[in-house]
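User: What would this chain look like folded?
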Amino acid sequence: MSIDTDTARRVARLARIRVEEDQLPALAGEFNAILGFIEQLSEVDVTGVEPMTSVTPQRLKRRDDEVTDGGYPKKVLSNAPDAREGFFAVPKVVE
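Assistant: Here's the prediction, encoded as structure tokens.
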């Protein structure tokens, strides 16, 4: 896939990046270099290679998945403009 200056202009606009007209050919060249590198990566055979989260093997900390109130509901509700019976009170929006 090749990126031309029109596509580079469109990508810059979508990314909300101001690029001067004379810099568009250089930006298109950089996009093409990135896409070429990605194509090289897709040629690598990764069959049997497990995904990793870090370069050093480690186990993630685990905890039981239990529903709790967080341990400080009064503190949380103190920020609410209106709280009743231990819950946030909100205006009724559906009749």
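The first strand starts at residue 83 and ends at 84. If you want, I can go into more detail on any region.
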